[in-house]
Amino acid sequence: MERQTELDWLRGLMLVLMTVTHLPTWFSAHLGQPFGFVSAAEGFVFLSAYLVGSVYWRSWWLQHYPSAGDIEQLSGAAYVYVTHEHPDHFHMPSIRRLGTRPTYLFPALSERGYLGHIKAAGYRAEIVPPLRWQKLDQGVSILSIPLWNDDSVLLIDTPDALILNLNDAKPLPTVLRALRRLAERVDKRRILLCSYSPASLVNSFRDEAGVVSLKRPEDYVAYVCRLCDALGADFYIPFASQASFERPDSAWANQYRTGFADLQRGWTARAELLPPYTTLDLTGFGYEAVAAGDYRPAKSTRLVELTGARDAAETGATIDADDLAEAVRVVGNLILQGVLLSRRRGGWRAEGTGGQVAPGRGAGRLHYYQYAPAS
């Protein structure tokens, strides 16, 4: 087999980054949504988000839930890939619904508590060898790329297309250049999946006039366009950002989400912008999408009941001095690390979401259902 210098370069870079993240420094402390399906033969699923319920203390809810039939079909998948351990990506209620038939695949990250947890619950789970193509089925292989921030990139090589699932990993420019070189060697149509709306603290600051938003929707759209151009993508599917905030204390953030209309207004990339919840034929590259009027959100009565119960439970909780001391320590670390990491560029750079893609029938199709929020 011909040696690929791009993979050698990535292995060397990841070795350096993983070494740095295990050193006892402020950098290691800082380092220390989404679901995709490509069908071929039995097919397999790439999961990195949630299919049912909600996450983050009943705050994040899906705009469009899969039907019982959709989940039943997914449960017959051979593989499920979990990009990282955030609860909107590693979601045990969704995994319980999918069941024990799939083998659950995880990237070779420095933090691996999820592997022991899922094995103890009775599921088959494996670490994917990093930076090596692994054949999963006839004509379908994957390449898992663990990143320094305990997230991962997944490349999916199919007979006629290469899928680049960046979810909310935010790879460094050097990694993007290596991915571009790899994609050019594969030489197939490229489909990019990545988040495009904030789920971080960028809208959580206040002054006398109200919310101080550190990033506008246009900034996120511009970032995705730059990614598409940097990777030479042919198609972009809105990914990892279709959810809403439904708790009384988080609903205010819905107005700051980046939506599909924002993508349409600001789209400048060469790649074709596809609608959310798209089923894409990976041979002829025709597609169909779920219309917004056909979305299946959570029932409002159930949503109110569950968010209310969670809010009541937290209202009745007792916070003591030890809890406050821990909160001050954690927040203090985040502030210090944010200042140090952003000093070189003169601004905050933290952002991300979760998301996912889902399946349907027939070999050679990419189906998107979504599942993680915007902010």
In the CATH hierarchy, what is the superfamily?
Ribonuclease Z/Hydroxyacylglutathione hydrolase-like
Instruction: Tell me the name of the CATH class.
Output: Alpha Beta
Derived from helix and strand composition plus strand pairing, the structural class reads: alpha/beta
Strand order of the largest sheet: 7-6-5-2-1-20-18-19
The whole-angstrom Rg is 20 Å
Question: How many separate domains?
Answer: 1
What characterizes the major β-sheet? 8 strands, mixed
Please tell me about this protein's structure.
By secondary structure, this protein is of the alpha/beta class. Helices cover 32% and strands 21% of the residues. The protein contains ten helices and 20 strands. The chain is globular.
